[in-house]
Amino acid sequence: MKADTAEPIKPIQRNGVTIRIRRTEKNGFGRFVVDYRVLGQRKLVWRSSLADARAAANDAIDKITAGQGEVLNLKSADAYAYTRARAILDGDEGETKIDFQIDEAVREFADAYRLLAGRSTIGDVCREWLKRNAVELPKISVAAAVEELKKLELADGQSNDRMKQFNAHLNPLAVAFNGEVHTITPKLIADYLGAMAHGERTKANHRDTIGYFNRWLILRGYLPKGTDWLEGVREYSKRKIGKIEVLSADEMRRLIEAADERILPLVVIGGFAGLRHEEIKRLDWQDIDLDEGFIEVKAANSKTGTRRAVPMKENLKAFLKPLAKKSGKVVTVENTTKQLLKAEAETGDGWKRNSLRHSYISARLAECGDEARVAYEAGNSPQVIRSNYDARIRPKAATEWFSISPKATP
After folding, report:
1. Model pTM greater than 0.85?
2. Among candidates 357, 350, 214, 347, which has minimal Cα distance to 277?
3. What string of H, E and C letters represents the secondary structure of 129-190?
4. Is residue 104 located within the same domain as residue 197?
């Protein structure tokens, strides 16, 4: 029969001697191995039953004990080392006695020493662990922590888009890790992200939200300070590589003509101020100053989380003045993409993804030639402006672009 592998067998300890028994298999049959040392030599005794193995272990202890005087008849240096080690384990007055045999203590030390590999001392690691765990942390499941975070963030006034992000990124995390937060390790996070059926950009967004969740757990006292779930976890690229297409002035005129009043602000702000689709959807009329001539993109509404003030061209002011209100959403229609696609379909020119923003950045760069200025207005980096938009539109075409204006009412 095969050996029972349900639980490890407790070592036999008596008279200061420890002998281990382990299960194994030999020639297709279950066996028990009595494993011990005598005078520095390892001994293995095989038995077919656990009872016989225990009997052999006790017999070995008796023999070792009987010959202990010979074993301990050491040279002075070795004898001193032995007695000193025994004294250290027993401890001074007031210290806790360590109930280990010397060989067990050495084994524990050797295992820890090899794990550290010279990067730190065992004492330093223990002190750091005690510092981090000086107070017992409350236990909480991943699912419960996610719900608590979302509840608090909602009470703090986070935007609907931010709450959607929490739901999209953290709800799957709670399903994947059906346990307490302290059980999560960087390896588990790396495996979780790596197994996602998403592109790098989406994985990068999930990684960022998980990092935020990690930091929040530390601030709430659910994880020890210094816990970093993302340590060594691959960083995914957020750069979205795709074809950059721009509109001609005639295409823009046809799109404006096809857009109804509900979607027109999105078209002209995207084309003549370069705001992102989602940034325009979050705009309030209070963010648009027609007198001073700029649009404020608040940090909470910006993709980058940074406030910026975008100057308005005269043609953009002309389009927005008849539509302007004191307050309220600039774009009131819910499904903006559907309405935009409908307008583009009516032009017969076809769909060009993000072409409004791409056209503005390209035309603005051709007009002023200042990469840093355009990068600020667009909420991007000068490197991206230079590599993606330079020379896509000529200065003459840029002048025509910003000359597009509303048709005069008869």
Report:
1. no
2. 357
3. HHHHCCCCCCCCEHHHHHHHHHHHHHHCCCCHHHHHHHHHHHHHHHHHCCCEHHHCCHHHHH
4. no
98/168 same-domain check: no
Cβ atoms 236, 207 nearer than 8 A: yes
**Residues 136, 228: Cα–Cα separation, whole Å:** 19
The pLDDT of residue 121: 92
Query: In the numeric block, which tokens belong to residue 37?
Result: 């040392």
Nearest to 64 by CA among 118, 116, 18: 18
DSSP letter string, 303-333: TTS--EEEEPPHHHHHHHTTT--SSSBS---
Look at residue 208 and tell me whether its pLDDT is greater than 90: yes
Question: Over the stretch 217-265, which tens digit does the pLDDT of each residue have?
Answer: 999 989 988 899 999 999 887 765 456 788 999 999 999 998 888 889 9
| Dist. CA 392–CA 172, nearest whole Å | 41
For CA atoms 45, 47, 49, 55, give the dihedral sign. Answer: negative
- Are residues 385 and 268 part of one domain? yes
Higher pLDDT, 399 or 2: 399
- Phi/psi at 102 (5° precision): -60, -40
What domain range includes position 338? 249-401
Using CA atoms, how far apart are residues 341 and 181, in angstroms rounded to an integer? Answer: 44
Q: Which residue has the tokens 């390790």?
A: 185
